[in-house]
UniProtKB/TrEMBL annotation:
Record-annotated Endoribonuclease YicC-like C-terminal domain positions: 177-296
Alphabetical list of InterPro entries matching this protein: YicC-like_C, YicC-like_N, YicC/YloC-like
Alphabetized UniProt keyword annotations: Endonuclease, Hydrolase, Nuclease
Enzyme Commission identifier(s): 3.1.-.-
PANTHER family on file: UPF0701 PROTEIN YICC
Protein name as annotated: YicC/YloC family endoribonuclease
The UniProt record lists the keyword Nuclease: yes
Cofactor dependence: a divalent metal cation
One term of GO molecular function: hydrolase activity
Species the sequence originates in: Nitratireductor kimnyeongensis
Domain Endoribonuclease YicC-like N-terminal: 4-159
Class of this enzyme: hydrolase
Similarity comment text for this entry: Belongs to the YicC/YloC family.
Length: 296
């Protein structure tokens, strides 16, 4: 039996490089299709397209968020001061002190102003940039592998739950089929009672019309087709669950069909016992459909 895959999971992967350390955090939740959002540090937008393509090769559904953090190597962090800007700011601070008596500017205060102090790009060299990108994408592949395993682990748990739901649906279908109210004798007795009520309430009723109405009542009460279709859907659901992989959409369709048949069964029922079984069947089908929404 293959493994189903949930759409929910989380994974993290990190790598060290001469330029610094990189770390990916990838998480996914339910979604009707595959949607990916990337949060990348400034300057690393260049790797998004390749990363997105690698993600799309692994997954077909789910809302995925991928976040990259990059910490520069301390050995390569070289401070760069915009001296012209610093002189202008220092001169302005001096004028403010002379005119308004403000406190004197300090070196740490001036250097802390936006645009005065920056750090040189440690990966300006093309060779090092290519090497860093390779490390980033390798870490991303590792994170995707971890996410896939997390989704499969949860899918395995869902697999057992869904098979249990299918087994319960089958058991309830068996109960409906075996219910005493569906025996020919019980059906004849209900029809006899209905016909008797019609005769009591009507004068001059045509006997041919009476037989036709009785036949219509019998046809409306027959739930053989619903039972047969339920059994077909049960077999299909088990086959899809056993096949594994991205079968969430197909199981979602089967869930709709289960719901349709259980509704029809309840509407056609003319026995309290069958109605009670049908209502329980609807509850189990709802649980089945709820779990399907978690599957890829």
């Amino acid at each position: 039996m293959s493994r189903l895959q949930s759409m929910t999971g989380f994974a993290r992967a990190a790598r060290d490089h001469d330029a610094g350390s990189v770390a990916w955090e990838v998480k996914s939740v339910n979604g009707r299709s595959l949607e990916a959002r990337f949060r990348l540090p400034a300057g690393f937008e260049r790797i998004e397209q390749t990363a997105r393509q690698r993600l799309q090769k692994r997954f077909s559904r789910g809302n995925v968020q991928a976040s990259l953090t990059f910490t520069q190597s301390a050995a390569l962090r070289r401070p760069v001061v915009d001296e012209d800007f610093l002189k202008e700011i220092a001169a302005l601070a001096g004028r403010l002190q002379d005119q308004f008596g403000t406190g004197p500017a300090t070196a740490d205060g001036l250097l802390g102003l936006r645009g005065v102090l920056d750090f040189a790009d440690p990966v300006a060299d093309e060779e090092m940039r290519a090497s860093l990108d390779e490390a980033i994408l390798a870490a991303f592949d590792e994170a995707l592998q971890g996410l896939e395993e997390a989704r499969r682990d949860e899918g395995s748990a869902l697999q057992a739950i869904m098979l249990d739901h299918v087994t319960r649906i089958e058991a309830l279908t068996d109960q409906v089929e075996a219910d005493a109210s569906r025996s020919p004798e019980a059906i004849r007795e209900r029809l006899r009672e209905q016909v008797a009520r019609l005769l009591d309430a009507t004068t001059g009723f045509d006997s041919d019309r009476l037989h036709a109405e009785a036949a219509i009542l019998a046809a409306k009460a027959d739930i053989r087709e619903e039972i047969d279709r339920l059994r077909t859907h049960i077999a299909s659901a088990r086959a899809l669950i056993a096949a594994g992989g991205p079968v969430g959409r197909k199981l979602d369709f089967l869930g709709q069909e289960f719901n349709r048949e259980s509704n029809t069964l309840c509407s056609k029922s003319n026995a309290a016992t069958v109605t009670a079984i049908g209502l329980e069947l609807k509850a189990v089908v709802d649980q089945f459909r709820e779990q399907v929404q978690n599957l890829e």
